[in-house]
Specification:
By secondary structure, the chain is α/β, with parallel strands linked by helices. It has 12 helices and 8 strands. It is globular.
Amino acid sequence: MKRWHRISLIAVGLLLTVALISPLLIPIPPLEDTLPPGQLADPDSQFIQVNSLSVHYKTLGAGESTLLLLHGFAASTFSWRQVMAPLSEMGRVVAFDRPAFGLTERPLPAPWPGDWESERANPYTTAGQVALTVGLMDELGIERAILVGNSAGGAVAMQTALNHPERVETLILVDPAVYAQGSRAAWIRFLSNTPHMRRVGPLIVRRIQDWGVDFARSAWHDPSQITPEIWEGYLKPLRAQNWDRALWELTRSARPSDLPERLDELTMDCLIVTGDDDRIVPTDQSIRLASELPNAELVVIPSCGHGPHEECPDQFLRAVTEFLKGRAE
């Protein structure tokens, strides 16, 4: 029995060794047909250096007020295409790509200056994205702005308002991801930071090209509105160099959010816009958020999903226009 016990222990040890080493030996095929982000730019694309990062943005209009647009997960400036021009009638409008998305530079740990693991230095953390948002405002000469954030972009907008209230005039939150944002279990965060997962993680996120279709369809109340041109607009950033590794860095940088505990600190006027059929951030969460913020108005758009600014742009623009005109009176 002792002999078989030793053999069993040796076998288990060998299996564990193989399990620990094999992920480090898996060949990672390079992405094909990728390009530097600048080569994928649109005619109205602009780039600016912010905190050592090349940030892609688009802008329209002029005036004393500035609306700064922050897109959601897996989106980009493209998601604001239907509302930028109408919003520019109320002032300057700036939409930019958050790190890991669109055509903004996708830095990786090795070349990044300073301590990559620190919250502010890593551009994929919430703190890093808040710093980038304020840095962009500095570079563009924007003293205060109306922050318009969709989904995860809404959470970044709210965190920016908490950290820099003097820079935020008001918040317009479009299906904001607040109550479940960054709430991964500690063991998952630990696993995602092991050498094994940091190696194979990019392979995992490449599957977005498969499951992304279902995710996009679930974001719309009427997915038949997703034309081939719209889908191509969402796929274009997946041709940018290192998009897979950057998306993995964003994933592993997620941390639990303290937003639900700090809502009473957001005392500025807020508008919350949601679709009545939001299956990404359930509509009930937006209704709850409106009840817990000190000065919030709520607009629920019927027969609309997670992106009212895309699926129901007329109703979205009406809600924003009435809100901003009401504040001006």
